[in-house]
Every structure is written in C-alpha cells, then in structure tokens.
Amino acid sequence: MQALNIGATIRLDFTPVTSWDEYHDAFVAAFGLPAFYGRNGHALLDCLSSLRDADTGMCRVVVAPGEVVLVQVDGLAAMPRELRESFI
Fold it and tell me: Is the Cα dihedral 88, 12, 17, 37 positive or negative?
C-alpha cells in the first residue's frame, strides 16, 4: 500500500456551527477562500477544485500534483442535521 503524500493538513472545526453562515465561515477560515466566495455548495466546489492551481486565487491552500489535502473534521456530530448531511 502506497503512503499518502500529504501536501497540507487542514482542521475544519464545526464545533460552533449552527447556521449556514457559520458553516461557510468554517470553510473560509480553514481553506482561506476569497472575499468574493459565493457561500453556497457550487461556489465551495469551485474554490476547492482550485487546490492545485495557485494562480486562481480561489484558495489559500494549494498542493502540488500527487499531493493530497488531509482534512481533520471536528464537531461534525454536534452540527444540526441539515448541515451535517450537506457536508457528508
């Protein structure tokens, strides 16, 4: 089994999250999303799909080809069901 080549480790803390605004705030804080981030699922996918392209400015976190982002998720069980299911 091949070891993961971890390019970045991110802590995504959902402990204080009780609303959609706080949900998106957690992603903004963890990944360094831009001020113009649209705060919806499509915008989140757009930003996170740019993890390998520093030139886009869509995400502070950037990894090289062949690297992965390890995401530590805290507080998931405490989130409201709708938010938790959206994340999963």
Answer: negative
